[in-house]
Design goal:
The protein has 142 residues and is an alpha+beta fold. It is 23% helix and 11% strand. The chain is built from 3 helices and 5 strands. The strands form 2 sheets. The chain has a 3-stranded antiparallel beta sheet with strand order 1-2-5, with no helix packed on it. A hairpin with a 6-residue loop joins strand 3 and strand 4.
């Protein structure tokens, strides 16, 4: 059996947007050399994606309307999670409560978001002791 894996990264300049990834997926299939089989397209953060299997402007507009009703951007105060008082992250398929760590985060409460990779960077590295204390606070599996 042959397998092939390719990660595709997409960065949007705004909170939400539609990206047609059909050509990117086809390019990955071509690169793989595999001529028969199944293609699995999977978002690593399922809360950040919606798959629409049709290129129809009306359908896309309906989804935009539905998504804004489902999770409106404003007002920010309506959201009780991902604040300094209730902050959770998912890393390597495990969910962590990092609420107590926010105040002592080396990068401050905001840190820096790398524009090139989209990864969070801090101004100085975490100490080994702090990382080990965080590992003891595991809350569950995704």
């Amino acid at each position: 059996m042959m397998t092939y894996r390719k990660e595709l990264w997409f960065h949007l300049p705004k909170r939400r947007g539609l990206i047609n990834i059909t050509e990117s997926v086809q390019e990955a299939v071509n690169e793989s050399g595999i001529r028969e089989g199944l293609v699995l397209v999977n978002a690593m953060n399922i809360s950040a994606s919606v798959f629409i299997n049709a290129v129809e402007k009306g359908l896309h507009a309906d989804f935009e309307t539905w998504l804004e009703k489902l999770a409106p951007e404003l007002p920010y105060e309506q959201y009780k999670h991902n604040t300094e008082a209730d902050c959770w992250i998912a890393v390597h398929q495990k969910v962590w409560d990092i609420t107590d760590f926010v105040a002592e985060h080396p990068g401050g409460s905001a840190g820096e978001l790398s524009p090139s990779s989209g990864e969070m960077r801090t101004r100085k590295p975490h100490s080994k002791e702090r990382i080990m204390r965080g590992a003891e606070a595991e809350e569950g599996i995704v």
